[in-house]
Design a protein that fits this description.
Blueprint: H1 28-33, H2 35-39, H3 41-47, H4 50-56, H5 61-72, E1 79-83, H6 90-97, E2 103-108, H7 111-120, E3 127-131, E4 144-150, H8 158-171, E5 172-183, H9 193-203, H10 209-212, E6 227-233, E7 238-244
Parallel strand pairs: 1-2, 1-4, 2-3, 4-5
Antiparallel strand pairs: 5-7, 6-7
Bound molecules: S-adenosylmethionine.
């Protein structure tokens, strides 16, 4: 018997039910390119170690996590959307900042990742875990106050990345905030550039897109944020975008 999937479907009256969305296949890029990181049952066991995530980010995990959280506020109000689960404690730290009447929705396409996140979080009625594709979310237009995308976009093929950004722009309300943390093209002199180049070519087939283009280039035509801020970190290997919708 398959274990029940502790995923809360985003349907009125169903909060708290244990249910995965039907007819939602694992995207082929996750099956083919990222099975080792997210899909395989042993992936969670292997990667759910903060020291390993930190090592993959050359010791920058806490810094990048804290930068993202700082943008959302010391106290996070309203409805926050986290697009995709992450290894480590980003979500529990975010949850710790939620105002009593605030809510957090985490959307992910992999039940195994949602299950893992559920196991890491304390029970809290303010949090909803939803099994859905980031490029087709069942959230109403302008229903979210802020959205966070932490190292997601470099893993998505261009058409999915475009779909995710279009969805985020659709669901975040005008004046709401979108925070993106991801890879960025480092300068030629960056000591990690050759290594990251090799890693991307071997393991992360879509990541080089973020070295070639600004993330804003993947927004739908004519849909620019009202304001856009960008900072780079660790000599330019990482970027943080803050868009006001
Ligand atoms: C956020 S990214 C990587 C984050 C970072 N490397 C970490 O520490 O976990 C990984 C997550 O993105 C999810 N994901 C990838 N494509 C998705 C999609 N189209 N819709 C929703 N979730 C997606 C994967 O299932 C996985 O849980």
């Amino acid at each position: 018997m398959t274990a029940p999937i502790p995923v809360i479907a985003d349907r009125p009256g169903r909060a708290g039910t244990v249910e995965a969305a039907h007819g939602l296949p694992v995207p082929s890029y996750l099956e083919q390119d990222y099975w080792w990181a997210y899909v395989h049952p042993r992936a969670v066991h292997l990667f759910e170690r903060e020291w390993l995530v930190n090592a993959i980010l050359f010791g920058n995990y806490a810094r990048l996590r804290n930068l993202a959280l700082a943008e959302l506020g010391a106290t996070v109000h309203g409805r926050t959307l986290q697009v995709a689960c992450v290894y480590g404690n980003l979500t529990s730290r975010l949850l710790a900042r939620l105002a009593p009447d605030a809510s957090l929705e985490v959307v992910d396409i992999l039940p195994i990742q949602l299950r893992n996140l559920r196991a890491k979080l304390p029970h809290d009625a303010r949090v909803t875990l939803t099994h859905a594709d980031s490029s087709a979310m069942a959230l109403a237009d302008h229903s979210v106050d802020q959205a966070l995308l932490f190292f997601l976009l470099h893993e998505q093929p261009e058409h999915v990345r475009r779909g995710t950004l279009a969805e985020v722009m659709r669901v975040v309300r005008p004046g709401g905030k979108i925070v993106v943390v991801d890879y960025h093209r480092p300068p030629l002199w960056h000591p990690m550039r050759p290594l990251m180049n090799a890693v991307f070519r071997r393991l992360e087939p879509y990541a080089m897109d973020l070295w070639r283009h600004d993330i804003a280039a993947y927004l739908p035509p004519g849909m620019a944020p009202a304001s856009a801020g960008k900072r780079t970190w660790f000599g330019g290997l990482y970027q943080q975008l803050v868009w006001i919708r």
